[in-house]
Amino acid sequence: MAWLFLLVAGLCEIAWAIGLKYTEGFSRLLPTIGTVAAMVASIGLLGLALKSLPVGMAYAVWTGIGTIGTTALGIYLFNEPATLLRLACIGLILSGIIGLKITS
After folding, report:
1. Cβ atoms within 10 Å of 88's Cβ, excluding its own
2. Burial profile 25-59: b = 16 or more Cβ within 10 angstroms, e = fewer
3. Are 7 and 50 in contact (CB under 8 A)?
4. What integer pLDDT is reported at residue 104 of this predicted model?
5. Counting beta carbons within 10 angstroms of the beta carbon of residue 15, is it exposed (0 to 12), middle (13 to 18) or buried (19 or more)?
6. Which of 16, 6, 10 is nearest to 48 (CA)?
7. Which pTM does this prediction carry?
8. Range of 25's domain?
């Protein structure tokens, strides 16, 4: 169950990171409410996952999920560059997450 909490916490991290773009500096009410709710959910679920997972590993996986998802959505939604080097770096982060899962 802890891994499910961690996965959903990472997805919520993606939501709030992307949501920040839509708040326009917290000047738009609905995107701001959604972003803050995603922040609270992300931290809360990470806290639940940490009840049984090691903090260093869980935090690395949580931020890795957020980094990969936010970067991928930045490419898709905001036409950020998808260079070969950037994609290779995302692959390295993904391999690190998989390695941490395998070794836990």
Report:
1. 9
2. eeeeeebbebbeebbebbeebbebbbeebeeebbe
3. no
4. 76
5. buried
6. 6
7. 0.89
8. 2-103
With both helix axes pointing from N to C terminus, report the angle between 84-103 and 55-78 in degrees, rounded to the nearest 10.
150
Say how far apart CA 20 and CA 96 lie, in whole Å: 26
**Element housing 29 (H / E):** helix 29-49
The token pair at 8 is 């959903």
Number of domains present in the structure of the chain = 1
Residue type, 67: T
Reported as a single tens digit per residue, the pLDDT across 22-52 is 999 999 999 999 999 999 999 999 999 999 9
Tell me if residue 48 falls in helix, strand or coil: helix
Q: Which tens digit of pLDDT belongs to each residue from 56-102? A: 999 999 999 999 999 999 999 999 999 999 999 999 999 998 998 88
